[in-house]
Recover the amino acids of this structure.
């Protein structure tokens, strides 16, 4: 497999995974975490 | 100079909610669904997007998911398009380290073997611990954010403790430990170029794996190259471009290109093979 094919496969995988993630509400989970103070992230939790 | 401008713009776009520092409140707009390309704590009051590493750990540590399609897909897309160009041009924490390195001081060269530590940190703190070190409810911690990330302390912890007196009482030994890590990283950044990127950053470790195949990449013309080693002397990341043009350590800063007397280093921006060149 040459690099060109590998790039196309990985890009396609990236798009498919991204869409699958959105479908199963992962983006909402990320949003829920990102809009509140993450106590663990700042070394308190 | 052009790169520095892009770095400033990127840092500002990633942290466009500057009013958040004054209000002490975290941005809650819809853009927080989306991961930004570089390392930027989403608990920073100015951040308008999600940190990809924080997002990845959040999903892996949750009881609902065992794998993050969303963040993996995002990292694949950023990685395949740009590789570590993200580190050199778009990452706000990379910019902070570079500005610190401008301060006059003695210099220290980080040994090359230290670059492997970031892969261990990626595997242990970003993947393994959030997935497997879980409580009774099946929930883990974002271990890299919790125990290591100095960007979180600098961009999120300190501003929030300043604006929230109630949080100061809760800041204990762990915060002190992270604060010491941040101070150590600041000192290292003054005496060495991008120590966090070289030794610790799991995001750089991920993007580095894409360097050899990324659409934007470097190419050394072997017919022009005289192997004078000037590129290796100019590279602050310790890459000998004439030996390994797409090293995982290369952050695409372009110092090697501007210093090459034979003009042998070019960039390609093609999905095809390396035979077609451009001089961006």
């Amino acid at each position: 497999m040459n690099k060109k094919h590998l790039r196309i496969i990985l890009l396609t995988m990236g798009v498919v995974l991204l869409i699958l993630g959105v479908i199963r509400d992962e983006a909402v989970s990320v949003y829920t975490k990102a809009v509140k103070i993450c106590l663990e992230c700042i070394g308190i939790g | 100079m052009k790169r520095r401008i892009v770095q400033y713009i990127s840092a500002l776009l990633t942290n466009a909610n500057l009013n958040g520092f004054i209000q002490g409140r975290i941005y809650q707009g819809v853009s927080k669904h989306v991961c930004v390309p570089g390392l930027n704590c989403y608990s920073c009051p100015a951040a308008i997007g999600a940190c990809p590493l924080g997002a990845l750990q959040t999903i892996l540590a949750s009881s609902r998911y065992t794998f993050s399609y969303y963040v993996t897909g995002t990292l694949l897309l950023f990685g395949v398009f740009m590789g570590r160009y993200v580190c050199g041009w778009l990452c706000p924490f990379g910019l902070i380290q570079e500005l610190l390195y401008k301060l006059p001081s003695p210099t220290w060269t980080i040994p090359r073997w230290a670059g492997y530590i970031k892969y261990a940190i990626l595997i242990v703190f970003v993947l393994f611990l959030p997935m497997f070190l879980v409580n009774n409810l099946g929930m883990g911690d974002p271990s890299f954010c919790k125990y290591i990330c100095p960007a979180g302390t600098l961009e999120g912890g300190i501003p929030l403790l300043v604006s929230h007196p109630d949080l100061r009482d809760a800041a204990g030994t762990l915060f002190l430990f992270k604060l010491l890590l941040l101070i150590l990283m600041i000192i290292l950044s003054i005496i060495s170029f991008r120590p966090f990127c070289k030794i610790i950053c799991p995001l750089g470790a991920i993007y580095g794996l894409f360097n050899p195949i990324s659409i934007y990449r470097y190419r050394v013309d072997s017919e022009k190259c005289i192997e004078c080693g000037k590129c290796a002397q100019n590279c602050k990341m310790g890459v000998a471009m004439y030996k390994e043009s797409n090293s995982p350590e290369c952050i695409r800063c372009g110092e090697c290109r501007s210093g090459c007397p034979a003009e042998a280093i070019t960039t390609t921006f093609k999905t095809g093979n390396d035979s077609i060149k451009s001089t961006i």
Summary: The longest helix of chain A spans residues 3-23. Chain A has a mean pLDDT of 91. Residues 3-34 of chain A form one domain.
